[in-house]
Write a structure and sequence with these properties.
- The protein is mainly alpha-helical and 462 residues long.
- The chain folds into 3 domains: 109 residues, MgtE N-terminal fold, CATH 1.25.60; 107 residues, CBS-domain; 143 residues, Tetracycline Repressor, domain 2 (Orthogonal Bundle).
- The protein has 20 helices and 6 strands.
- The strands form 2 sheets. A 3-stranded mixed beta sheet has the order 1-2-3. Strands 4-5-6 form a 3-stranded mixed beta sheet.
- α3 packs across α5 and α17 packs across α20.
- The longest helix has 31 residues.
Length: 462
């Protein structure tokens, strides 16, 4: 076995000179024949011994699947050199053929200038796909950014900067803001185009810089970008890597689209609808969505809530002897649990929105819980007073009226507290707080409210 491996290694070494001769003589057919019998790792080893121009020629001769396999085997430095010298079509072939894990590793290890080149070479449609292949997390800013921006050097004169803008501005997403970078492409400032136009052409760009700018990293959540746009009234937001290299920008139109998607997603969660089977667009295009997909989107939560509602039935069954004696109690059950659920939905909506806007943090949960205890108590007293008249009218009993009033107060307080605490729980476990949807809260209020009402009745009525 060792002899075979040594023999094979000798063949590879002997082939190196021959390969260079074949490249020099442009004998592409024989080169293809040689590589067709070699493993990708062996071809990668050969590439490490060749000049970069020779590597490029060999990669172009390989079929797409083998090309990507060989590329993933070479070291990072050589990958960088290869990418700097490949054509647009070859780069796209390699990127698209790479396995997802190899692709993610590639872009994580590449310097930011290589990443920029990869993005800039692609069409808008292909760019969106490439950004997804970069390994940026889903819903991260990296999925939104565009490389079509204007960047100038701090040491340029204003005149040179304006010439650069005139030459490349037509391809930029926006020219309202021009970004200043150093020779390593670190972001230094953002300058309104108006400031450049009004400046002395002979002055340096750095003379009009204030170095006050807002930026965001590519791995940040898109909701963070939305908050920055709202807070600073931005038209565009520069996107950097962790070391401050400028990668691209996010424009306000992209943020508006993202905000619309976020709101649509929240609507689906508030209604306990699973959007994954059909995508977020189905809410505005339900007439075009197949019935089977609509069914899949709605059935999951309905089944889960169904089994939760069965608990309510079990609680009622446990008090059937008392209910048989005081049948009138059942007539108050719907209004009690529905009111508690409605109170919980109100408090949850307020908390979810506050969390989304960043005006409330997870650490504020105890403070809000205390406030809601007070507010829920006041609401419970008001609703208890409202139902007291109906309680006496239906039952003709002061004791049953008291049961209903006490149960109303307690249920409204509990429902309100459930509505406050659930969004914090979902946020803490890294889930969207909108998942604490109205159907979930009302179902929990049904379960808890039924148990509380019948327990109070059992205690007070003996």
């Amino acid at each position: 076995m060792m002899g075979n491996e040594e023999a094979f290694g000798t063949v590879v070494k002997l082939d190196l000179h021959k390969i260079r001769e074949l490249i020099k003589n442009k004998n592409w057919r024989e080169l293809k024949t040689i590589f067709s019998v070699l493993y990708p790792s062996d071809i990668a080893e050969l590439l490490s011994e060749l000049e970069i121009e020779e590597c490029i020629i060999i990669l172009r001769l390989l079929p797409p699947d083998l090309q990507s396999e060989v590329f993933s085997e070479v070291d990072t430095d050589q990958q960088e050199e290869i990418l700097k010298n490949l054509t647009n079509e070859n780069i796209k072939t390699i990127i698209n053929e790479l396995d997802p894990d190899d692709r993610t590793e590639l872009f994580e290890e590449m310097p930011s200038d290589v990443t920029r080149k990869l993005i800039n070479l692609l069409s808008p449609e292909e760019r969106r796909e490439a950004l997804q292949l970069l390994g940026y997390p889903e819903d991260s800013v990296g999925r939104l950014m565009t490389p079509e921006y204007l960047a100038i050097n701090a040491h340029w004169t204003i005149e040179k900067a304006m010439e650069h803008i005139r030459e490349y501005g037509k391809d930029a997403e926006t020219i309202d803001i021009v970004y200043v970078v150093d020779k390593d492409w670190h972001l230094l400032d953002d300058i309104p185009i108006r400031r450049l136009i009004l400046a002395n052409p002979k002055d340096k760009v750095e003379s009009i810089m204030d170095r006050h700018y807002v930026s965001i990293t590519a791995t940040s959540d898109q909701e963070e970008a939305i908050k920055l746009f709202e807070k600073y009234n931005l038209l565009a937001l520069p996107v950097t890597d962790e070391d401050g290299h400028l990668l691209g920008i996010v424009t306000v139109d992209d943020i508006i689209d993202t905000l619309r998607e976020e709101q649509t997603e929240d609507f689906t969660k508030f209604s306990a609808i699973e959007a994954d089977p059909i995508g977020l667009d189905f809410i505005t295009n339900i007439k075009d969505v197949p019935i089977t997909k609509l069914f899949r989107a709605r059935i999951t939560w309905l089944i889960a809530l169904l089994f939760m509602d069965l608990i309510t039935g079990g609680i009622i069954q446990g008090f059937e002897a008392m209910i048989a004696k005081y049948v009138v109690l059942i007539t108050f059950l719907p209004v009690l649990v529905d009111t508690a659920g409605n109170a919980g939905s109100q408090s949850a909506t307020l908390v979810i929105r506050a969390l989304a806007l960043g005006t409330v943090k997870v650490r504020d949960w105890l403070f809000l819980l205390g406030r809601e205890l007070l507010v829920g108590g006041l609401l419970g007293l008001a609703m208890g007073a409202g139902i007291s008249i109906m309680g006496f009218y239906r039952s003709k009993s002061v004791l049953i009226m008291e049961v209903v009033v006490v149960a109303m107060i307690v249920n409204v307080v509990i429902g309100s507290l459930i509505g406050v605490i659930l969004p914090f729980i979902f946020t803490k476990i890294k889930k969207d707080p909108a998942t604490a949807s109205t159907p979930l809260i009302t179902t929990l209020a049904d379960i808890v409210g039924t148990g509380v009402f019948l327990s109070i009745a059992y205690i007070m009525l003996g």
